């Protein structure tokens, strides 16, 4: 099913972030789609009731009509770093089918925007009028063991990140250039500028050097993605170095920032050719292919237009009449 890619409202994101506090008593957070965003409806506090009782009371507690679907974020167990949550997709039987499909396609985007690591421990639960109960939710939690998919690996990586960074939606993060990196790019005439992503999704300067001969030896690290701007002889190359061994989340973040950084480099007056590189051994050859290339002027070959000629008469088609066979009298006499 195609995804709707709806953003999360600021009020909902702040409410969810505040619910991660150790002293928070929030039991569930209800939200719906309003316009082109997922918005907060209600945050309910209850630190004493059991999970089954909390789910059984949802239909009466959530202030919605009988035809309005909703997402309910249910708070589960606590860990030393954060809380675990479960996404409940509430779709009443009398809701329009088109609205049900919209909520179903928005479910993954909602988790990614709030932080997929918060929802990695529990499977999503889709409930209708007949099966909205705590017993049905617990019974649906059985998960088959198997190899991890890319999405599950990404969720496991996010579980180890701080709560604030997990709540930031990747598509809405403004990648800004630090003052040091901006100054290094503005003053670049011949040399190398290495830029990495900082903790607050800021493009920060890793180093600036005049070395351009050995790019691989000049970099500060080779086990993590980074951007490298190399300029030599009025030519420049923007290298997006991303090794295959890097974490999936890191790859996605740098890939998202690539076009932003390319535009920032162009704003500094540097016309750089973008180069993607995954292997450290290919760094120097990739950069040399851009900086050392020579443009050879091709010889101009004028086009000669020959006038078209038509045949003066039709081609020879052969005789259309069949000639009668005439026997040779000398040959007949010889045979006799």
Report on the structure:
The protein is α/β, with parallel strands linked by helices and 336 residues long. Helices cover 31% and strands 22% of the residues. It contains twelve helices and eleven strands. Strands 6-8-7-9-10-11 form a six-stranded mixed β-sheet, sandwiched between helices. Strand 10 (235-241), helix 10 (248-267) and strand 11 (272-277) form a beta-alpha-beta unit. The longest helix has 20 residues, at 248-267. It starts with 9 loop residues before the first helix and ends with a helix.
Number of strands: 11
Q: Rg, please?
A: 35 Å
Report the uncertain regions: 163-173
The major sheet is characterized as: 6 strands, mixed
Overall morphology: flat
Task: Quote the beta fraction.
Answer: 15-25%
Give the neighbour order of strands across the main sheet.
6-8-7-9-10-11
* Order of helix and strand elements from N to C terminus: HEEHHEEHEHHHEHEEHEEHEHH
- Specify the structural class: alpha/beta
What is the topological layout?
Elements: H1 10-18, E1 26-34, E2 37-45, H2 51-56, H3 58-61, E3 70-78, E4 83-90, H4 97-114, E5 125-127, H5 134-139, H6 150-158, H7 163-166, E6 176-177, H8 179-186, E7 191-197, E8 202-209, H9 215-218, E9 226-232, E10 235-241, H10 248-267, E11 272-277, H11 283-291, H12 329-335
Parallel strand pairs: 4-5, 6-8, 10-11
Antiparallel strand pairs: 1-2, 1-3, 3-4, 7-8, 7-9, 9-10
């Amino acid at each position: 099913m195609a995804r709707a890619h709806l953003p999360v409202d600021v009020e909902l994101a702040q409410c969810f972030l505040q619910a991660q506090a150790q002293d928070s008593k929030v039991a569930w957070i209800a939200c719906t789609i309003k316009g082109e965003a997922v918005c907060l409806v209600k945050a309910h506090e209850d630190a004493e009731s059991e999970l089954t009782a909390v789910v059984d009371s949802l239909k009466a507690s959530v202030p919605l009509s009988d035809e309005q679907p909703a997402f309910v974020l249910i708070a589960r167990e606590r860990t030393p770093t954060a809380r675990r949550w479960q996404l409940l997709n509430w779709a009443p039987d009398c809701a329009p089918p088109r609205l049900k499909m919209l909520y179903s396609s928005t479910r993954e985007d909602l988790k990614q925007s709030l932080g997929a690591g918060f929802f990695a421990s529990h499977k999503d639960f889709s409930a209708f009028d007949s099966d909205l109960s705590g017993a049905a939710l617990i019974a649906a939690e059985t998960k088959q063991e198997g190899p991890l998919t890319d999405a599950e690996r990404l969720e496991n990586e996010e579980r180890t990140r701080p709560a604030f960074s997990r709540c930031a939606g990747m598509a809405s993060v403004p990648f800004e250039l630090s003052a040091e990196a901006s100054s290094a790019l503005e003053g670049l005439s011949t040399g190398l500028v290495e830029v990495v992503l900082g903790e607050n999704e800021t493009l920060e300067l890793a180093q600036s050097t005049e070395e351009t001969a050995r790019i691989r030896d000049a970099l500060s690290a080779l086990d993590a993605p980074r951007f490298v701007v190399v300029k030599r002889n009025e030519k420049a190359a923007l290298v997006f170095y991303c090794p295959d061994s890097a974490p999936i989340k890191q790859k996605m973040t740098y890939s998202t920032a690539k076009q932003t950084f390319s535009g920032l480099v162009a704003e500094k007056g540097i016309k750089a050719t973008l180069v993607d590189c995954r292997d450290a051994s290919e760094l120097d050859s990739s950069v040399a292919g851009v900086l050392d290339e020579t443009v050879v002027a091709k010889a101009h070959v004028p086009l000669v237009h020959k006038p078209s000629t038509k045949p003066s008469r039709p081609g020879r088609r052969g005789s259309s009449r069949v000639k009668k066979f005439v026997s040779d009298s000398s040959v007949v006499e010889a045979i006799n």
